[in-house]
Amino acid sequence: MQKHEDFFQNVFEVVRLIPKGRVTNYGAIAKYLGSARSSRMVGWAMNAAHSQKKHVPAHRVVNRNGELTGRQHFETPFLMQELLEKEGIKVVKDKIKNFDKHYWDPMKELSL
DNA sequence: TGGGTGACCATAG
DNA sequence: ACTATGGCCACCC
Question: What CATH topology corresponds to A2-109?
Answer without folding.
Answer: Arc Repressor Mutant, subunit A (1.10.10)
